[in-house]
Amino acid sequence: MGSHGHLTDAPPPRRQTTPPSPEMGQMVCGTCRCLLSYPRGVRYVKCAQCRTVNLLLEAHQVGQVKCGNCSVLLMYPYGAPSVKCSCCHSVTEIGNQR
């Protein structure tokens, strides 16, 4: 403050923003849909919000299919016969949709 009790004209301090680290990844929790950050290379990520342990798969290990009930895009591990939708809880058979 100046001698008369007024604030000086100095600019506010700049907030340091750190770009996301290339060693970190992100995924959506399969139960509560919160965005989770994790260190690359881990196999499981525990959600701090709902405590669900999520299996982490690489892109070449998963397939995608639309939910047969609500059309949300679902991911599943290759070889799974079906996948349960985290939104409407409907079970979609995988069959030959690969």
UniProtKB/TrEMBL annotation:
Main localization of the protein described in the UniProt heading: nucleus
Cellular component, GO annotation: nucleus
Key word Nucleus present: yes
Disordered: annotated span: 1-24
Residue span(s) of domain Zinc finger LSD1-type: 29-53, 67-91
Any one Pfam family match given in the protein's UniProt record, by short name: zf-LSD1
InterPro entries listed in its UniProt record: LSD1-like, Znf_LSD1
Compartments in which it is found: Nucleus
Keyword vocabulary terms for this entry: Nucleus
The keyword Nucleus belongs to this UniProt entry's keyword annotation: yes
Compositional bias ranges of the Pro residues kind: 10-22
NCBIfam families xref list: LSD1
Name of this protein: Protein LOL2 isoform X3
Species annotation: Nelumbo nucifera
Source taxonomy: Eukaryota, Viridiplantae, Streptophyta, Embryophyta, Tracheophyta
Annotated gene: LOC104587143
